[in-house]
Amino acid sequence: MQGTTIGASDTNTCPLSTDFTYFQPFNDHISAYAGTAGSLLTAHGAASPTVSAFLCPDMTQSGLGTFICHFGHYNSQGVTSVNWTSSYITWTGDEVAYGTCTQFDTVSVKLTVTNPYGSYSQTKSFACPMGPIP
After folding, report:
1. How far apart are CA 120 and CA 52, in angstroms?
2. Residue 13, SS3?
3. How far apart, in whole angstroms, are the C-alpha atoms of residue 114 and residue 78?
């Protein structure tokens, strides 16, 4: 969507005719609602993020002292950040974290997804996966 047409002319199907019709860029609407008047919301609305299919560790990809955690996707409104926390994590992406551990370690991994309306947080603890990687 690029914008909206304001007004009517006698050549269209609007019920009232006006002397002019003009195009209002969508950016103007976003700016108007960014202030105290409210905000332009997606279907998720003014709510904390939701996260689907958080799996930690993913045992189909973990073993021999390595683990992978991931989630399916998140639904969120506004600027959203993803943070993985664990002393065992060696690499992260938005939807995935990779780590290493040693036998008998108990690994704890925390996932936090934050937007302007709140945050989703979940912690998973597990024994270091030492079996073969399938």
Report:
1. 11
2. coil
3. 10
Q: Which residues pair with 25 in a beta bridge?
A: 3
User: What residues form DSSP beta bridges with 104?
Assistant: none
CATH of the domain spanning 50-127, picked from 3.40.50.300, 1.20.140.10, 2.60.40.10, 1.20.1080.10: 2.60.40.10
pLDDT, tens only, 51-106: 999 999 999 999 999 999 999 999 988 889 999 999 999 999 989 999 999 999 99
The pair of structure tokens assigned to 74 is: 């998140």
Token pair for 80: 């959203």
86 closest CA partner among 74, 95, 99: 99
